[in-house]
Each structure stands twice: as structure tokens, then as C-alpha cells.
Amino acid sequence: MISPLAADRAHFRAAHELAELPFAEVFVDTLLAECERRDPKGLYARARAGELTGLTGVDAPYEPPERPELRVDTSTTGVQEAVCQIIELLGGAMKVSAKAEYAVRAAIELAAAGDHRAVSAERIASSQGIPLNFLEHILSELRIAGVVRSQRGTDGGYRLSKAPHEITIADIIRAVEGPLATVRGGRPEDAEYPGVASQLPRVWIAARQNLRNVVEHVTVADVASARLPDSINALADDPEAWVTR
Description:
This protein has 2 domains: 6-91, 3-Layer(aba) Sandwich (Rossmann fold), CATH 3.40.50.300; 98-242, Orthogonal Bundle (Arc Repressor Mutant, subunit A), CATH 1.10.10. The protein is built from 11 helices and 4 strands. It has helices spanning 6-18, 32-38, 43-48, 79-91, 98-113, 121-128, 132-144, 169-177, 200-215, 220-224, 230-236, and strands at residues 26-29, 70-73, 148-151, 157-160. A two-stranded parallel ribbon has the order 1-2. Strand 3 and strand 4 form a beta hairpin. Helix 5 crosses helix 6, helix 5 (98-113) packs across helix 8 and helix 6 packs across helix 7. It is globular, with a radius of gyration of 22 Å.
């Protein structure tokens, strides 16, 4: 969908998250003057002349995305490169779903609260800006997987089942999503390719190992206390790590 209004985009994002479907917001950042220059139908000229109303950027509002998954700066990016960026976003090897992200954030909230009291789903949802219905479903899955435990009563809520330093990011992702990396829904080690592509499974397995080297070595306690392992900080400190490609 295309919409100039933040509320519209937020509505569709929430609907996708509730349905456990991926959603990516792409901000094609283009100056209004450039939009007018490229306008083949002359709509902007007609709006400027008062012949047309309700045109975004002229007499109708435009609310740019605050945190899009991808920003395409058309002043520095050509059409072909922009298309490649979007294709990479939609088909990239590493994808953290909204479900997995919410699960990790909920666990971090529980880690920060400590074991002295249970935390309600409502409080987690409010603190992290997570849709409550979606969060309750995620917490149920985490409980079934043994990552959290629930407590009923007036002081009811959720706690971590183990000490925060014993629960890794990988534990949480696996609890709600299954294996960390799959190839066409199967295990990388089960993939087979004929002829010159026969070594490709080793590439998928190496990529999975790299992912494990991060998420299996960061605990919810590390994140909640803002004390990440040196090895993780070293990776994140590399400027190239922040470049989407």
C-alpha cells in the first residue's frame, strides 16, 4: 500500500503483525521539486493552478516515515540501485520477524524487572509499544517453551523461568520461530544441489554459524543491563555493519 499518512501505515503494520505476516516500510525520499519535474501527467502543475485539490505535498499533508525498514535517497541513488536495495530488503538472508523481535523485547523487560515480582502483559505492552493481543500470544508460546512462567492472582503476570544470564537471544527466537536459519523451510544441512552448485549447502551452514556466534552469546541480562559482550560491541562498532546492502 502507498499512503502519505503515518496512521494509515501504522494500521497496516499492526494488522500484519497480528496476522504474523512480515511488513516492510520503504521510504522513497524525494524532494517535492523532483516529484514535480518527473510528473508525466502534469498533476502538480494543475494543483498549483487550482485546477486540482487534495494532492500530497501541495494542499494535502505528507508525513514521512520515522523508522522505515529502508530509506531510498533518490538524490544519490539511481533507479537500478534502488530496485536492488528493495529486492535485498524483501529477500535478504537475515530476517528478524516482528514476532521474534517482540518476544526478545518482552524477555528483556522481564530481565530488567528481576525475579522479585511478576510483570503483567499490559505493562510490557505499554512499555515496549507492543499490541497487547499479539504479545499475549507470544508470551503463551514462551511459556510453553519454558522460557517464562506465569503467575495468577492480583499480583499475577510473567517471570523468566531461569536467571536472565542463562537465557540467550537465540533461546527466545527458537521458542517462537523454530530453528535460526532454514533454506526453503528445511535445514541447511539437508539441502542438496546438483553439479557446480554442490558446495552451496556449506555456504548456508557457514551463514547459520555466524548468526549463532552472535545470538547464542548475548543474554537478555546483557541487553537489559546495557553491558554487551566485547565481541558483540566490536562487530557493532564497525561502520560497515550499519550499512544496509
